[in-house]
Design brief:
Strand order of the largest sheet: 1-2-3-4-5
Helix content: 10-25%
Largest sheet: 5 strands, antiparallel
Distance between the termini: 41 Å
Number of helices: 2
Radius of gyration: 16 Å
Number of domains: 2
Strand content: 35-45%
Structural class: alpha+beta
Number of strands: 9
Shape: globular
């Protein structure tokens, strides 16, 4: 099966719901909601609150994609029927919530043009996902970097 063939829709939705519920149980002191949404199949939200430096939105859509939106980063993992994909997604979401992972934003003239989701390694940080607003084959000369991380 290639990576874009559609898995069983009910199985994938069950996996997504189970994954979101697991994440919710992992952080019982944080306010969060899980709901169906007309624009996507399933949404989980953590608003900005004490203990969370920025809001986090998770989504399930396109029959097999897990989405993460936080601090101007938007990225996706698929297929959600692959246990390793789900494991990485959960690891990174938990890392963002508890401060082990971070988002590095690149700004040009005050606007975020790139965001990288990073997790720690023994020698520094490893980029695990990247979002870019523009094609960055040519990086603007004058950029600044901002690190967004929960504490």
């Amino acid at each position: 099966m290639n990576s874009r063939q559609r898995p069983d829709e009910n199985l994938a939705l069950t996996i997504a719901r189970t994954t979101f519920e697991k994440l919710q149980r992992s952080h019982p002191v944080l306010e969060s909601t899980i709901r169906e949404d007309p624009n996507v199949d399933l949404v989980m939200e953590w608003p900005r609150q004490p203990g969370l430096a920025f809001p986090i939105l998770l989504g399930f859509q396109e029959l097999d994609e897990l989405h993460l939106c936080a601090a101007d980063l938007w990225c996706q993992w698929f297929p959600c029927t692959d246990a390793k994909v789900v494991e990485e997604f959960v690891e990174l979401v938990n890392g963002l919530i508890d401060g082990r992972a971070r988002i590095v934003q690149t700004l040009h003239r005050g606007a975020i043009i790139k965001a990288e989701l990073q997790s720690p390694t023994e020698s520094g940080w490893r980029t695990r996902a990247t979002w870019s607003k523009v094609n960055l084959t040519i990086v603007p000369r004058r950029t600044e970097t901002r690190i967004v991380q929960s504490t």
